[in-house]
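User: Hi! I have a protein structure encoded as tokens and I'd like to know what sequence might fold into it. I'm fairly new to this, so please keep things simple.
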């Protein structure tokens, strides 16, 4: 199975925008999969772009990070569009009239949840009132039947909500580690709550797949994102603890992170449980193959976050205070990718996130399977002779001005040492009055087969508008775009640069 569009094969140079759906404009406190998402695709088309890259689409936890989700397979239900629920007949126009004031340029997750939850409950009540042979009910039933992970996820979320949204490791044993017979009892006990969770997932996938079809029909490919690790507080770990290195009570023995690097002097202590790769290999990496197949349904190309962890990963004792106490441990390596090729074919629609501490062994693994790596243009001007400089970039890579973890290009330039700023001005032949557009032009002019820029760079936005600051626990993932920023002038400017550099 290979879900990559023929466009990847026929267009040698592509470009696009990195924008997570939560950052879209809209009237409901958070970007969603409704009209503004379709308008963004129209903007991409007008601007001559063929790629929309998102962050992971899973249901987020308390810190709202898309890299710490309650499931590797489920969708973020906050992205469900109330306007599309009206269109489908589950809500009325009047249901949307009364809403609180929402900030335009940030996501207020708590307020968005508070507003949307009653709407979803009302939509569910409308759905439950339908006859058993109604088209929507038949479609829902088929979704439930075809979706292997759905029952465990629905049970996990239903229990979690009944336990006050606490971590599953704090639940009573019958919920924390239920036997098969106990799951049967729980399914009866929480029948309606589970059905509600399944309904929300059906809505998410229904809306996302329609949006993907619209994008593909208009020549836009979707790049999705797979976090290499999963959250400890997730249906994945709760339902299949044998996939991870846990103790008898379900607590992780060791956790994930990275050693000191560009982003943090003490490294990053992510805290995710680590995989029992020996067990995964025995099963033919079955869980991972399902995960990749699921992501290739949602997107055309997938970016594997922290790719280097598949060659070797940083293992940190679970009781460590910082990531500095970790050590490198071999990952699954070639056996993992050989299995992917066996399942999906050799033309892998995968981007390797190969940033951070990258060794020759990691490069060899990436190159063995012909996977494009990532080149961050901001990094190019921090060293005297950087592999990130445009003339050092190969064709088989993806060039970014920056990623969700970087400052915006304007913010980076404003805070960079004068030595780096001087090099930028001379290299790009600019007075830096609109430095983010200089970065965009330089990015698009590289040899890289794909050039992608975060949406903030289109609007010359500074550090206040960055998406994430690695190592900082709060205040991230809240960036939003104002609708009026997507002007014809911006689209025309981007289109001109795109055509100039043959993308």
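Assistant: Happy to help. Inverse folding works backwards from shape to sequence: for each of the 503 positions I chose a residue that suits the local structure. Here it is:
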């Amino acid at each position: 199975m290979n879900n990559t569009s023929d466009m990847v094969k026929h267009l040698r140079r592509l470009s696009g925008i990195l924008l997570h759906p939560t950052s879209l404009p809209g009237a409901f406190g958070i970007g969603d999969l409704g009209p503004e998402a379709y308008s963004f695709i129209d903007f991409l088309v007008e601007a001559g772009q063929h790629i929309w890259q998102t962050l992971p689409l899973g249901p987020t936890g308390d810190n709202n990070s898309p890299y710490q989700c309650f499931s590797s397979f489920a969708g973020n239900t906050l992205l469900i569009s109330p306007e599309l629920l009206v269109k489908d007949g589950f809500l009325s126009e009047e249901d949307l009239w009364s809403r609180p004031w929402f900030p335009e340029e940030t996501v207020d997750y708590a307020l968005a949840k508070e507003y949307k939850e009653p709407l979803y409950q009302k939509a569910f009540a409308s759905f439950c009132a339908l006859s058993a042979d109604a088209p929507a009910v038949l479609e829902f039933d088929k979704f439930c039947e075809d979706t292997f992970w759905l029952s465990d996820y629905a049970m996990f979320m239903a229990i979690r909500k009944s336990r006050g949204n606490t971590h599953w490791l704090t639940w009573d044993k019958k919920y924390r580690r239920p036997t098969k017979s106990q799951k049967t009892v729980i399914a009866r006990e929480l029948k309606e709550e589970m059905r509600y969770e399944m309904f929300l997932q059906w809505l998410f996938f229904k809306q996302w797949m329609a949006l993907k079809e619209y994008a593909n029909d208009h020549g836009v490919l979707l790049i999705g994102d797979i976090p290499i690790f999963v959250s400890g507080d997730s249906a994945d770990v709760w339902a299949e603890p044998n996939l991870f290195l846990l103790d008898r009570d379900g607590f992780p023995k060791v956790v994930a992170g990275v050693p000191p690097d560009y982003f943090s002097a003490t490294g990053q202590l992510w805290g995710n449980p680590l995989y029992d790769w020996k067990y995964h290999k025995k099963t033919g990496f079955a869980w991972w193959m399902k995960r990749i197949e699921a992501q290739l349904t949602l997107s055309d190309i997938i970016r594997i976050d922290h790719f280097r962890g598949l060659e070797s990963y940083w293992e940190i004792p679970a009781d460590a205070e910082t990531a500095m106490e970790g050590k490198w441990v071999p990952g699954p390596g070639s056996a993992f990718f050989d299995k992917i090729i066996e399942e999906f074919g050799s033309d892998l629609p995968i981007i390797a996130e190969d940033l951070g501490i990258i060794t020759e062994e990691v490069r060899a693994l990436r190159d063995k399977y012909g996977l494009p790596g990532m080149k961050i243009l901001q990094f190019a001007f921090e060293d005297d002779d950087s592999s990130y400089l445009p003339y050092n970039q190969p064709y088989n890579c993806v060039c970014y001005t920056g990623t969700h973890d970087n400052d915006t290009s304007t913010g980076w330039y404003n805070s960079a040492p004068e030595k780096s700023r001087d090099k930028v001005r001379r290299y790009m032949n600019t007075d830096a009055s609109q430095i983010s557009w200089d970065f965009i032009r330089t990015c698009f002019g590289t040899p890289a087969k794909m050039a992608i820029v975060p949406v903030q760079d289109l609007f010359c936005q500074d550090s206040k508008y960055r998406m994430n600051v690695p190592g900082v626990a709060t205040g991230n993932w809240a960036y939003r775009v104002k609708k009026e920023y997507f002007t014809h002038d911006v689209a025309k400017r981007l289109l001109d640069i795109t055509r100039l550099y043959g993308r």
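A useful reference point when you look it over: The longest strand covers residues 221-227. Feel free to ask if any position seems puzzling.
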